[in-house]
Amino acid sequence: MEKLLILVFVVIAVSIFLLILLKSEKVDYRIYECEPTLLSKSSLSYDAQTKNLTVFISVNCCGIDLRVEKEGKTYKIVERKVGDLCRCFCTKKIEIYGVEPKNQIVFERMNGAIEIITSSLGFCGISTYGNCLKDEDCVRDGCSDQICRSKFEEPISTICEWKECYDALKYGVECKCLNQKCQWVSA
After folding, report:
1. Are strands 64-71 and 126-127 parallel, antiparallel or unpaired?
2. DSSP states of 77-121
């Protein structure tokens, strides 16, 4: 009976370990040292030829650790407090290699807040992250409807030009309220 219990325990332990391995995929990435410039919002660029994604995020200058995880079609940049924070912020550049198009990029701050940096690679609309309580509080703005902003913010005028990457329908994104912030999210 004791051998059977040990066997059952080993099988359960191995099963849990395999589930953890399968849930999180290996990600090849590099995080650069802090740059002194400070961004008003996170941004990214994608090179379709090399399939490399470059993300810029603002973080505390000290006392934090960043890592990149992947689950399905979502890349998550995770910020964790590992020491004492200081009174300065800087921009971190993160390069993620071998990224296929149509992935979601999110930034999980150390306080648990989630910021969707982009809903779909290739879409180049802008989110203002203005305050909202419901989806109806978020509106599309700009001459090409490329901006997602709160209806409580001032209207935004843009140059009247059309870029293929503004096509929200093609990239499967909508202007919605997520975590009480207006932003482009996957439809």
Report:
1. unpaired
2. EEEEE-S---S-EEEEEEEEESPPSS-EEEEE-TTS-EEEEESST
pLDDT digits (tens, 9 = 90+) for 141-176: 988 998 899 999 999 888 888 887 888 888 788 999
The sheet that has 28-31: what strands, in order across it?
Answer: 28-31, 89-97, 52-60, 43-47
Task: Provide the terminal-to-terminal Cα distance of the chain, rounded to the nearest Å.
Answer: 53
Output the six-digit token pair for 26.
């290996």
Q: Give the global pTM.
A: 0.55
Q: What is the CA radius of gyration of the chain?
A: 20
Are 61 and 90 in contact by the 8 Å Cβ rule? The answer is yes
What element of type H or E holds 3? helix 2-23
Scan for tokens 């000290």, then name that residue: 62
